[in-house]
Amino acid sequence: MLVLAPLYNSFGQETPAEVIPPVNTTGDVTEDTQHYSDPFSPISQFDPDQIDEEEEVTERFYDFGRLVHISLGGGIAQPTGPMVNIYNVGWMIGTRFTYFLDWDLGITFHANIGRSSMSIINPNPITYNIVPEFTGTATLFNMGFGIKFYPNFQDISKSIAWLNPSILLGMEVFMINDRINEQDLEDLKTYNINDPSHRATAPSVFMGAGVDIPFLRNVLYLGLEFMYHLSFFPSTNYRIDANDPHFGQLDYSGRFFSYNIQFIWNI
Questions:
Q1: Tens digit of pLDDT for each residue in 214-226?
Q2: Measured in whole angstroms, how far is the alpha carbon of residue 138 from the centre of its chain?
């Protein structure tokens, strides 16, 4: 049995057919086109289209991108409304800090201080020949925050894109601290008039537009701005009675326009 067993197995089992792999009759070789995005991989393993896109984004950021703007400058403060009968055109200097949330939109904080002259025509015919006009000075101050938005015009007009137009909108606090010339009051001391000098603080809403002209590879900008300050000053002076013959009819309410020139550092 031991002798016949191998013979039995050789005749009783069939030899499995040999599996032959298919032959590529066309002769084409499939190329692996997979690209890796591993930042530690050699540059040749990146997708060429992706490389071009990233280079374009980087170049565009250095040309148009904004992160932080620090501004220093000054300009003219022009009152409007009833207060033009009290305050003249003045000047203000200040600073602004702008932090950008994306390419075109930023949060801005500003603070300005300045001075204006005062000129009040004496309405009392009795004392007009002694002091025809009351003069003085007023200190101006405002501080606030808002948003600054740059419309994207770079694909529409190169000239507009170069100017970097912007729109500003926000809220602030506006303060006026004025003082009448003491000599004018001294000349009328026999009439016991009340000193109308006072300090008024009011909330304000500002809105405006500007342009930023770049130079020095977009590191520095020359900014030009026009602002409208919708301030809510009270119309009356708490130190003056409504029946006062010299200052009782004064209306202290009004608004402000400002025209500013700024040097902007693009960090």
A1: 888 778 999 999 9
A2: 28
